[in-house]
Amino acid sequence: MKTTFPQLLLQHATQRPQSPALREKEYGIWQTHTWADLAQLVEKVAAGLHQAGLQRHEHMVVIGANRPRLYATMLAAQSLGAIPVPLYQDAVAAECIFPLNNAEVRFCLVEDQEQVDKLLEIREQCPQIAHIIYDDPRGLRNYNEEGLDALDSLIETGSAFVAKNPGWFKAEVAKAQPDDVAAMFFTSGTTGNPKGVVHTHSTLLDRATAGAEFDKLTSSEEVLAYLPPAWIGQNIFSYAQWLACGYVVNCPESASTVTIDLKEVGPTYYFAPPRIFEGLLTSVMIRMEDAGTLKRKMFEACMGVAKRVGPALMDGEAVGTIDKIKYALGNLLVYGPLRNNLGFSRVRVAYTAGEAIGPDLFTFYRSIGINLKQLYGSTETAVFVCLQPDNQARADTVGVPIRGVQIKVADNGEIMVKSAGLLKEYYKNPAATAEVLTADGWYHTSDAGFLDAHGHLKIIDRVKDVGRIQGGANDGAMFAPKYVENKLKFFPHIKEVVALGDKREKVCVMVNIDFDAVGNWAERRNLPYAGYTDLAQKPEVYELIRDCIEKVNADLANDALLAGSQVSRFLVLHKELDADDGELTRTNKVRRGFIAEKYAALVDALYAGRTEQYIETQVKFEDGRTGSVSATLKLMDTKTFPPVKSAA
Length: 648
What we know:
Elements: H1 5-15, E1 20-26, E2 29-34, H2 35-52, E3 59-63, H3 68-79, E4 83-87, H4 93-102, E5 107-110, H5 113-121, E6 131-134, E7 148-150, H6 151-164, H7 168-175, E8 181-186, E9 196-200, H8 201-214, E10 222-224, H9 232-245, E11 248-251, H10 258-265, E12 269-272, H11 274-290, H12 293-314, H13 321-342, E13 349-352, H14 359-367, E14 372-376, E15 386-387, E16 400-401, E17 406-409, E18 414-418, E19 425-426, H15 430-436, E20 443-451, E21 457-462, E22 467-468, E23 478-479, H16 481-489, E24 494-500, E25 507-513, H17 515-524, H18 532-536, H19 539-556, E26 567-572, H20 592-598, H21 600-608, E27 612-620, E28 626-637
Helix pairs in contact: 1-2, 1-3, 2-3, 2-6, 8-9, 11-17, 12-13, 12-14
C-alpha cells in the first residue's frame, strides 16, 4: 500500500466522516470518536507540536496505555514527518534512559502523573528532553517543571494556528512519502541494550494489508486494544491495520476492567499472546472447581465431546450425526455460554503470537468454537510472515507464508525471511543490522524450524536454545526447552516454567505456581498459607506440581524426537518471575540465561541431587524500593517413562 498513516486518516475522514474510528471507556460509559472528530483532533495536535518546535525526522516518545488522544498524537507526529517511539508504560524509569538518549528525544507525550514522575526522575540523565506533554492532568496541578505542559494546552495553541492557516495541515500530510520512517520500536533487550527497529510507512502498511487480505478483514471489525502499544503486535493490530481497514478500535477503561470490557465490546478480531489465553483458561478452571457436582460433571462430559470433535468441526471436516447432535447440545449448555462469558461470542478470527502456545491450550479454544489461529513474525518483520488459513490451524505449526513472503531454511536449521515488511535498520547500530540482514535482503530470524510437507512452518525453538542432552541414558537426545515449558504451562496451576538441560545429563525445571489457581485449590482443601512463598513450598503443592510434570513426561515419551526431554527433577520458586527483576522481558518472555545465572545455587542443587536449598533473592517493588525474599526450597524427583517405540 503506497501511502502513509496520516493520508489514510484523511481518506477515512473524507469517505466516512461519521463512522466510528475509536471508542474509549470513561467512567463506565463508552465514548465514540468518529473519523471526522479524529482528523480534527490530529490536525490541532499536529499544529500544537509544530508551534512547540517538533521537527521532521525527529523522534517523539509516547508512553501510556491505549488511549485515543495518544493515538491521535502519534498520527500528529507522523503528519509532521516526525517519528513516534512508543515505550512500555510499565518499564521502570531506568529502562527508559537508553531509548531516550539513543533516539535523542526532545519531545515526550505521556499518559498521566505516573509517567511524568518517571521522566522527571531521569531527566538529569536525559538532558535533551525539552518537552513533557501529559494527557491526564490528575495529580499534576501543583507541578511546576520546565517544559511540562498539558495536551489540552497544546491542542488550544494548535487550534488557534489552524484557524489562521486552514490549508497547512493537508499540505504537511502531503509531504510525507511511503518510504519515510513511520515509527521505531525498541526490542525487549534480552541480551544487552534494546535495539531500535526502524520501520517505514511502506513496511508497516504492506504487512498490515497482507494480513487483512488473508483474513478478509473489513471496516466492520471490532477490536479491543489492551496490550502495550510499545509491543509491535498490539501496534500492528490496533494502529496499522486499523488505519489500513478503517475498523473500530475500542480502548478499555483500565487494565483491571479489560475482562469486563471484552465482554461488552464482543470483538470480531482478537489478538493476545499465549499468556492471556492461559490466564483466561485458568479462570474458567477455577470457576469450574468451585461449581456444584452436577454442573462440574456436565462441563466435563461436554468438554470430552468438544475435545473429540470440536477441532474437526472447526476445520470443516466430516463428523458423525450423533457426534454433531452431542456437540450442538454441548454448544447450547456449555460452549456458547462459555464463549459469551469469555467475551468471544462474536470473534471471527483470534490470533496468538509472541511465543509458542501449548498444543492442549490451543486445542481447548478451537474445541469450544473459537477460531484461534497462530501467526509467526517479529518486530523486525512488521509481524506478519506466516498465518494459519481457516480450516488449517494446527497446534504444531505457525501457518503458511502469506503474500510477499519468501522463506528458506539455512544449513543450521535457522529460518530466513524475505518480505516487503522487513526493518529498514537498527537505529545507530549498523553492526547489528548487518548481522540480521544479508546483502541480498534475507533476514535472520534466529528461530530454528522447517517447512512441512503441506507448506506450513514449524518452529522448534530459538536456534541458540535448542540443545542436546549429554551423558546418561538420553545422551545426544534433542532438548527443546520452550516446548517442554509450554506443555507444563497448559496446567492451570503452573504459571511459568524455566527448563534446563542443554549439555547436561537430564532435564530439570524451576516452576512458578499460579497464585490464584493454587490458592483457590488450597482453600478448597482447607490448606492454610501465609502468602506466595509459604504456599509454594507446601508438600501438598509439590505433589500437585509433580503430578502435572509426570503427565507431561508420559506425553513426551510418545514423541520419538523429544522423549529425552522428560523432566527428572524440579523445584517451585519462592517468588514470581518478574520483568522488574530482569527475569522476564517486557513482553513476558523468560530470560532463561539470566535466570540460570541468577539462581545458579538452585541449578547446582538440582543437578547435585540435593533435597533442599536455601536461597535469598533481591526483589524490586513497584514504588522502586528494593528488598529481599528468602526461603529454603524443596527439590523433588519425578517419574520418567521409557520412550514408546512406534509400530513398524
